[in-house]
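REQUEST ID: PR-0412
SUBMITTED BY: lab tech R.K.
PRIORITY: routine
TASK: structure prediction, single protein chain
INPUT:
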Amino acid sequence: MPTVTLDGRRLGDWHAFHAECRTAFGFPGFYGGNMDAWIDCLSGLRDDDGMTRFALGPDEVLRIELAHAGELRRAAPEILEALRACAEEVNERCAENGEKPVLDLVLR
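STATUS: complete
OUTPUT:
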């Protein structure tokens, strides 16, 4: 299973969060650096649309492992909640298109 690991200790503000995600997911240079753009980029994981470094098959799932999630929860709970809600939104978009969920968020 393809996996991206984010370090919660390095995600304490929005700028850091989006910079880490740009690198970890391979978002394009024009990535907007906001959660709407995050959702849009990850909604195309099975389309091979070039919005990430990943191109998944119809049944594949991208695991997002958030290491040190407790530290992020203490430092920036709003970022952790946004990550959870936006991963859910990406999976809801899949369901609306008759597809299986594409993201698996694992907090460590």
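NOTES: The radius of gyration is 13 Å.
REVIEWED BY: pending
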